[in-house]
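Escalated from tier 1: zinc ion holo job.
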Amino acid sequence: MTSKSFVFCGLLADQDEATWVARRDKASAFLPLAEGRLSLAHTVVVPNDHAVGIHDASAESLQAVVLLAQELARAMETSIGARGVNILNASGPDSDQSVPHLHVHVFPRWKGNGLDTLPPTFSGHSLDNGWLSEVRAAMTP
Ligand SMILES: [Zn+2]
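Tier 2 regenerated the structure:
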């Protein structure tokens, strides 16, 4: 959703221009480049400390990102009347992640605004019957 030159660590270090919505101690929010926006007020939230995605992010960074997304959702409701948000993250090489710095997109939603929440397709990837036990066994207790 963003151009390859749009590197988030560079933005956070003020090496590149960004339109900031909020800057906090552990997370920041900014508007994506115009060509990557799905709506007005579509906002990207990132941890200030570098992490590639959800797999390697610290608990502190994840907490800061989710809390800032919550703050943004509340602000979008009270300021621009968006009574819903969709939050999207892509993490990992097979996820269509656009920039290798953890980020969540916060899309404000208004009734009948023409965005779809979930794609109408089902993954064509098949798994062996034991997939649920394997995932459970791989979880940290
Ligand atoms: Zn980074």
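The pocket of zinc ion is lined by residues 8-9, 50, 101 (CB under 6 Å).
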